[in-house]
Amino acid sequence: MTKKNRIVVICPGRGSYTSETLGYLKQCRDNPVVADFLADIDQRRAQLGEPTISELDNATNFSPSRHTRGENASTLIYACSFADFASIDLEKNEIVAITGNSMGWYLALGFAGSLDWAGAFELINTMGSMMKDKIIGGQLIYPVVDGDWRFSPELQQTVSRAIDDARAAGGQVHPSIHLGGYAVIGGDSVGLNYLMKNLPKLEHYPLQLINHAAFHTPLLRETSERAFASIPGSIFHRPRVPMIDGRGQIWQPWSTDVNDLYDYTLGHQVHEIYDFTRAVTVALKEFAPDQLYLLGPGNSLGGAIGQVLVANQWQGIKSKADFSAVQKSRPFLVSMGLRNSSRTP
Amino acid sequence: MFNRAEVIDQNFSRFVREGKLPAERSSTGLAQSGLRPADLMDLFESQMISRHLDLIARVLKNENLCYYTIGSSGHEGNAALGKVFRLTDMAFLHYRSGGFMIQRAKQVPGTTPVYDTMLSFFASTEEPIAGGRHKVFGSLPLLVPPQTSTIASHLPKAVGAALSIHRAHAMGIESVMPADAVVDCTFGDASANHSTAIGAINMASWVGYQNIPLPLVFTCEDNGIGISVATPDQWVERNFSGRPAIKYYAADGLSLLDTYKVGEEAVRYARERRKPVFLHVKTVRLMGHAGSDMENSYRSFPQIEEVEFQDPLLHSARLVLENGLASPEELVNMYEQVRERVRHVAAAAMERPQLSDPAEVRSTITACVHKRKAPPIPSEADRQAAFGGSDWAKTKIPLHMAKLINLGLHDILLRYKNTVIFGEDVAQKGGVYNVTDGLFKKFGAKRVFNSLLDEQSILGTGIGMAHNGFVPIPEIQFLAYFHNAEDQIRGEAATLPFFSQGQFTNPMVLRIAGLAYQKGFGGHFHNDNSLAVLRDIPGIIIAVPSTGADAVKMMRSCVREAYENGRVVVFIEPIALYMTRDLNVEGDKVWCAEYPAPEDEIPVGEFGVHRSGAAGEVADLTILTYGNGYYYSRQASEVLVKEHGKKVKVIDLRWIAPIDMDKVAKEIGSSRRVLVVEECRKTGSLSEYLVSALVERMDPLPRIKVVAADDCFIPLGRAAAAGLPKKEEILAGALELLRDHSKAPARKQVETV
Hints:
The structure holds two protein chains of two kinds.
Chain A: E1 5-11, H1 32-47, H2 53-57, H3 64-67, H4 70-86, E2 93-100, H5 104-111, H6 117-128, E3 138-143, H7 153-168, E4 173-179, E5 182-187, H8 189-198, E6 207-209, H9 221-230, E7 243-244, E8 250-251, H10 258-266, H11 268-271, E9 274-275, H12 276-287, E10 291-294, H13 302-311, H14 320-329, E11 333-335, H15 336-339
Parallel strand pairs in A: 1-2, 1-10, 2-7, 4-9, 10-11
Antiparallel strand pairs in A: 3-5, 3-6, 4-5, 7-8
Helix pairs in contact in A: 1-4, 4-6, 5-6, 7-8
Chain B: H1 4-18, H2 30-33, H3 37-62, H4 79-84, E1 91-92, H5 98-105, H6 113-121, H7 155-171, E2 183-188, H8 195-209, E3 216-222, E4 225-226, E5 229-230, H9 235-240, E6 247-252, H10 256-273, E7 277-282, H11 301-309, H12 312-322, H13 328-350, H14 358-362, H15 380-387, H16 389-394, H17 401-415, E8 419-423, H18 439-443, E9 448-450, H19 455-467, E10 471-476, H20 479-482, H21 487-493, H22 495-500, E11 508-514, H23 532-535, E12 541-543, H24 548-565, E13 568-574, H25 575-578, E14 608-611, E15 621-625, H26 627-644, E16 648-652, E17 655-657, H27 661-668, E18 673-681, H28 686-697, E19 703-709, H29 727-738, E20 750-752
Helix pairs in contact in B: 1-13, 3-5, 3-12, 3-13, 6-13, 7-8, 7-19, 15-17, 17-24, 19-21, 26-29
C-alpha cells in the first residue's frame, strides 16, 4: 500500500471571492456531493429570503456592493471552499489538520466535522449577516515584510508607531490579523482614516478592505455577545480531523470539549487578534505535512502562506524567489482556487 | 526479545484490543478527580506524544541520528501535573518530564512542543531553549528554566526561587512570578539521595519551620530504581513523610486521575498556605534508564514483564474504556495517529540546521536577552541617611579594606533595590570580619539575612532568587567552604545562560572571604589558597581586589555586570588584607584609602600598574600578580627600587577572569624579565596560565620566573605562611631573575620555584 500524501487544508477568509472568481461553482456541480450541498444551501438561503448562492455565482457581472457584502460573501466563499474540499482525492491524500484565516475558521469547523451542513450554514450565514444593518468599523492591510518577503522590523515599527499615533489622534485601532507578511488592522473610521493618510504609501498599501468589519478587535465585543445569543452551542460537535484555530491551538477529535469550542468560536475568535501566521506555523511544525492545500475561491492567501514558509525557512524556502521556484518544481502549496480557475468561464 | 521498546509499543495495541489491562492501584474516579472527560483524553494524548517521542528517539539513536535516549516512559502520568501547575508557577524539571512539558505547552496556544522536542533530539540550532546545546526541558514562555537535573543540583535553587516570591512582592521589586505563584521541582527517587536534594529539602523544612513563606512543591517521581539499583521498599515515604513543616502527599503516578486529584490538593496547599510540600508520585520506569541500559543484567525477565504491564498508558486506556470515552479500536487509532504525527515531525526536524561551529557553541556562554540599565546613583542626602551619621563620617577618612567594602555595600543596597545579602552570620553579627556590619539594622531583615549553615543552600538560594528578579549577593564565609558547594556555580548558575541562550539568567555577586596569610590563625580551612576551582568555569567573572579602594570600585562593576548583563560574578576578598593598613613600615597607612566617590568604578578586566619609574620607561623587572601577591610584591619592589636601584613595574591583575593577556603582554612591553607571583598553589594555579599565555604571545620572550605557593595545605601557627610567597621569597626570585642570564639558552627562560 502506498503511503498517502499528508496534507493540511487551509480555508480562505472573507476577501477571497472576487470578480475573477465569479462563476467558480459552475463546473463543480458534476460532483454529486457538491450538487446536493448547493441545493441544500440555496434552499436555506431562499428560506431566509436571501439571494441564493447559485444566483450570486451565476450572475453575469460581479457587483462589489452585492458580492462582497458579509451576508452574501461569507456563504458564497463557504460554498466555493466546500466544492474544493469535496474535490480532494482522499484515496491519495490524508487530511492531517484543517485551519483557516478569520472566517476561514468557520469553514474549518464545517469541513472538520464540528458542524454539520445545517450548523455550518447557521454559523457562517449568521456571522456574515451580523453587519447587515451597519458595519462596525473596518480593516486595512499593510506589509511588514520587504519585497523578498523577509520580515522587516522597520515596517513593523512603522505600523506599531502609526497605531499609537492613530490612538493618540482619537481613533480606535487594533492589530486584528497576523497575516503572514501583512498586518491587518481593524478600527473605527477615525483611526482607519488616520492610518490610510499617515502610513507611508507602499505600492497599493495601505489598502482598506471593502465591506470588512473590525473583526478580531475589541470593537466586536458586542457582536460576540449577539452571536452567543443567537447561535446555540448545540450545533457544535467534536471534530473528525484536528483543527488549528486563530491562536495556533490544536483541537483534537478525541479531546475537544464542545463547550470550549463554542466559547472560543463566538468569543475570542470574534474580538481578539487572529494569528493566521501562528496557525500555519503550528500546522507546519506540529503536523509536518507533505503539502498545504489552500481551498478556493481564488488564491488570496497564497502570498501570506508563502511568507509564513519564508519566516520559518520551511523546506529551504528563504525568500519569495525560493517560494516561486519550489512552487514551480514541486509545489508545497497547492492553491485549489488557481487550479480550479480553468473552470471559470 | 530484548528490544523492550518494541515490546512495550506492541503491547499497547495488543492489550487494549484484548482488554488485558492492569488493575487499578488507586480508586480515584473521573468524577472525583476534578477532570472533565475531554481533559482526560487530552492528558492521555500528551502521554502518547511523550511515549512516541521516546520510541522514535530510540529508533533514531540506532541510526546515529539522535543524541539522547533518556526518556519519560513510565512517568507519563506527570502530564496531569503539567495541567495542575499554572504557567506562572516556575517549574524546575528533571529529564523524565516529557508528559509534563507537552501538557504544560498546551496551556499556551500556538506552542509547538512536539517539533521543539524533536529539534532537541537532533541538537538543532533552532531548538528554542538551548539551541542544540543540550537535550533539556526548558522554555521561556512556559517558565521552565533549563538544567541537566542529573544530580538533583536543581533542588537548592528551587528553594531559593520559592523563597523569593513573597520577598519580591513585599519589597515591591519587579519579579517574574506573581505573589500567588508556587515553584515546582521534580526529581527521581534515586536522585532524592543526592546531598543536593537532602540539603534542599532540609532547607525548605528549616525555612517552613520558622513560618517563612516557601510555596514549593518537591515532586518526587518514584519509579523504584536508580539505573540498576533498586530503591528500598518504602524508602521515600519513610524518609520524607515526616519532615518538619513539609506536608507529604502520595499519588498514584500510573493514574492520571489520582495524580491530578492529589496534585491539585498538594499545589493548593502550597499556594494557599505558602508552605513546602513533598509530592510523592509513584511511577514505573520502562525501557531501562536510557537506550544503552540493558535491564536484563539486573532484573529478571518476569520482573521486567511485570513492570511493563504497569505501563501508565495501559492504566490510562483502562480509565478511558471504563468511562466509555472511546472504544479500544479508537484508542489504538489515536495511538497510531500520534505515532504518525511524531514520525513526520521528526523527519521535518531532522532537516533543520544542527549545531557544529565552536564559535556558535560558545556564543551563549554569557548571553543575556533581557538587558537592563543600572539605576541612577542616589542623591547625597539619601546616601547620607542610609549610611547613618557614624558611617557617613567614615567616608571621609582613610580606612582598611573591610570597612571600605562595608561602606560599598551600603551604597549598593541603596542603589540596587533588588539586591539582598545573605550567608552565615551576615545579619546581626555583621559577618565574621564585620564586613556586613550594620547592614541588617539599616536595610532590614528582608534584604540582609542569615542563612542556615549550608553552603549549597546559600548558593542555591542565590540562584533561585536570581531567577525571580533579584540580584543576590550571597556570602560564603571561607573559601574552603565553597568547595563543598561549588557545583551550584559550575553546574547550575554558570550554565544557565549557555543552556537557555540567555533567555534565563541568574545574576549574582558571590562574595567569598578567602586566601591565606592570616597570621597563624585558622589553619587550612580558614586560609585556603585554591582558586583553580573557579578559574575553569566558562563565563563567570572573578574579582580579587588587593586594596580597599579597588575592592569598592570593583564591587560596583560586579553588581553592574550582574544587574545589567545577567552575569555571575565571584568576588574574592583576601581576608589577610581586610584589616591591613600599612605596607612597608608600621604606621605608613599605604594600604588605607578614603571611600571612593560613588561614580568610581574599575571595569571588569582592567588591571592596575604600579611603576617605580616614569610612564613609558622600560622596567628592569615586571611583576605580574594579584591579591595578597600584589601586596607582598609591592614590599619587595620597594627594596628592589631603593636598595638595588632597579626600575620595577608591578601589575595587579585585579580580575582573574577574564584576563586580557594581549593587553598584559603590551603592558610588559620591552621589559625583559617577568616575575609571576602566585599566592595559590603552584600546581593548577593561575600562574600556569599566565606563563603559557606570555609564551604564546611574546616574541622575543622575556625571562620568566614563577614564585608560587607550595603544593601543600596551610598549617596552623607560626608556619602558617611558610610555604607562601612573601616579601623575602619574591625578592629572592626577583634578584635571581635580574642576575645576568644573557648567556642562558632560550629554552630555560621559564623557571618555577
